[in-house]
Amino acid sequence: MAPNGLGTKEFWAAVLEGRSGLGPVTHFAADGFPVRTVGEVFADDTLPGVDPRLAVQTDRWSQFALLATEEALADAGVRPQEFSPYDLAVITASSSGGNAFGQREIAALWSKGPRHVGPYQSIAWFYAATTGQLSIRHGMKGPCGVSVAEQAGGLDAIAQARRALLHGDAALVLTGGTEAPLSPYALACQTASGRLSRSADPERAYLPFDAAAHGHVPGEGGAILVLEDEEGARARGVEAPYGEIAGHGATFDPAPGTPGASSSGALSRAVRLALADAGVRPEEVDVVFADAAGTPELDRAEADSLSEVFGPFGVPVTAPKARYGRLYAGGAPLDVVTALLSLQEQVIPPTGPGTVADAGYGVDLVAEPRAARLRTALVIARGHGGFNSALVVRSLTQ
Amino acid sequence: MTPRKAVVTGIGVMAPGGVGTKAFWQLLTDGRTATRAISHFDASAFRSRIAAECDFDPAAAGLTPEEILRMDRAAQFVVVAAREALADSGAPADQVEPHRIGVSIGSAVGSTTMLEQQYVQVSDRGGNWVVDASNVYPHLYGALVPSTLAAEVAWTAGAQGPVRMGSTGCTSGLDSVAQGAQLIEDGLADVVLAGATDAPISPITVACFDAIRATSPNNEDPEHASRPFDRDRDGFVLGEGAAVLVLEDEESARRRGARIYCEVAGYAQRSNAFHMTGLRPDGKELAEAVRVALDRARLPADAVDYVNAHGSGTRQNDKHETAAVKVSLGDHAHRVPMSSIKSMVGHSLGAIGALEVAACALAIDRNTIPPTANLHHTDPELGLDYVPLTAREQRTDTVLSVGSGFGGFQTAMVLTAPGKGTYRG
């Protein structure tokens, strides 16, 4: 579920073309907001295709996940009832929970009184709502989890899902993450981060690694993946898995003010840990899906880290999110989807027209679709406060 | 190579009834309750007007004015608890490479109090859907994203290893300790600060539990309102607090001569896939979590010396949980003492699981089982030994702690005395 494409097929086409999903805020009158450009999935408040009984008790963010899950299960050819329920797990990421739902209820509380708060506030706003609803809807009784480490949480959730499979705690995990951070109060909260672009021009609002970078554009949506134990997947007749989650690494930046320590160093460690976990040497990585924060300081740290591990201009780097925004917990799972499709199609999708990497960064930023022999991709996600997460995705065909 | 194992070497607690681990354990073993009329805000318009509140002065607890401005109450709790835990453990953080220090924190509702307070400002008390975004509180983004809570702990501990932040509702505490133990077992860290925090005593949280009548309306008698397993129980009493444990790799903890409270011997999560708030009376999925946790600890059901209950005091929970214990422990369920500390410190949502693990670690260390306070008339439908009113001194080598939460999540954890209890066959 992405601002520039609904459904995997449309999203992939948009990403390859560099089609933008960015535009002005249409959910509400945002004239007074210091952010002018966002990545919306639907203009509407109600999402088509969500069971009405569920729609009344879920926030938009959970609905994105419910819809994405329908597509993922159909794509995988999985009928959950054919599994033992305890073998099915749900591990998702969220960064800000049920924003619009929560704002409606809290408005009712403060403007009308406690008796006007509805019964679903207790289950719709909290960060675990999506995992709970997916578990119930699909009869999944295995280990459930929720990672809430901002943008890094999306990769942490997938890593946790992989661990459950490797340890035999599950045979199949629904994983990934979604986010719906564009309701008025949630967007207002984000303006305090100092990292949002104020540009009203969708073509110039989010320019990671560009000399003109001045913040990111927030977007909504995300992705859900079906992760399975390889042997089990093959046994049930899966012939061409998209790829494998081959390695993960996570580190944390030194506390602000720590002498001599750098945030690029912590990120490099996360990357090296992920490569080591996957048994991959840096020169074997064919493409990097960057975190692409879009602020000069954070872009510099990420670029330094990539140069340190891969050498300057040592690996193609891309950031398709420049065309649809940062989706927080939904962002990294969408990057993993893009990485898997890149491996399948043997083409690196572009960062998009308009972004020109500052040569001083030493980053080989992919500006046009680039055909290449792709076997191994690295996805990077960094969470507000200092979280670094890196995931290696590998093709299962030679 | 023997598998790596996580042991608890430090405890930090922020709980109702007194700041710090010592006050916490005293309250529990005295069987006193810390539930009272809500004082954090004017609750007169609410159905449930009682809670277990922390008497917490952030400045006295050592937080700087800048930290106090920056942090929501939940963050303040967890940072203070983390500092106590580090000090209690003999501060191994100073001797360990920062890259090998990890963090695993949980919270059900994050920085909800700051989010609500600031919302009231920018919305003109809920009057404006389009809030005023021209001049928001500078730390508001940190309140929107719960990751801030783990980040604050990482900063205070100087951690640069893996930092996890989880949120599985009311099982967040147990799940975060389990994830912290995993970081040790997987060799990703040698020291992990693991725990959970919640400060949910604010109007929106009280209102949302009012709306589903989950909390006790016994406003006339707050001290006796939290009555798990009692025939007259009428809902849970909201609480707040935090607990952080220092988890270490067993071998390095022994090498440095650390005091070891207990080992994290096994844990498992299962879900009921039934209802976001409803529980089936058979407790089947929780029983399955207990079975798997014991299996991983390589312990038979009759090795359990004490069951630290979820015991929220709702009609359905206590029935569900009792059934799960009967199914998973068999006949032994009728012999093993089982108690709920929520009778004394309330139900602090995600935090309580970590507080309960802290209580279990202390129970093992002191060979004392905290009671279920306010339990004057055990519900005859339940029928286990719920340790009414008075703490019990008895050998406690193996403890089972269970948790159950909205979303249908069920978690079980087994903790054992150092070097005892675990069958290493």
Q: How would you characterize this protein structure?
A:
The complex is a heterodimer of chains A (398) and B (425). Chain A is of the alpha/beta class and 398 residues long. Helix content of chain A is 34%, strand content 17%. Chain A has 12 helices and 14 strands. Chain A has helices at 8-17, 52-55, 60-76, 99-112, 121-124, 129-137, 150-166, 184-191, 230-235, 263-278, 296-310, 331-345; strands spanning 22-24, 37-39, 88-93, 144-147, 172-179, 221-228, 244-252, 287-289, 316-318, 347-348, 364-365, 370-371, 376-383, 387-394. Chain A has a 6-stranded mixed β-sheet with strand order 7-14-13-8-9-11. In chain A, helix 3 (60-76) packs across helix 6. The model of chain A has no long low-confidence stretch (mean pLDDT 96). Chain B is α/β, with parallel strands linked by helices and 425 residues long. Chain B has 2 domains: 6-255, Thiolase/Chalcone synthase (Peroxisomal Thiolase, Chain A, domain 1, 3-Layer(aba) Sandwich), CATH 3.40.47; 266-416, Peroxisomal Thiolase, Chain A, domain 1, CATH 3.40.47. Helix content of chain B is 32%, strand content 19%. Chain B has 13 helices and 16 strands. In chain B, the strands form 3 sheets. In chain B, strands 1, 2, 5, 6, 7, 9, 10, 11, 12, 15 and 16 form an 11-stranded mixed β-sheet that branches. A 3-stranded mixed β-sheet of chain B has the order 3-4-8. In chain B, strand 15 and strand 16 form a beta hairpin. The longest helix of chain B has 16 residues, at 73-88. The radius of gyration of chain B is 20 Å and the shape is globular. The model of chain B has no long low-confidence stretch (mean pLDDT 96). At the A-B interface, helix 4, helix 5, helix 6, strand 4 and helix 7 of A face helix 4, helix 5, helix 6, strand 6 and helix 7 of B.
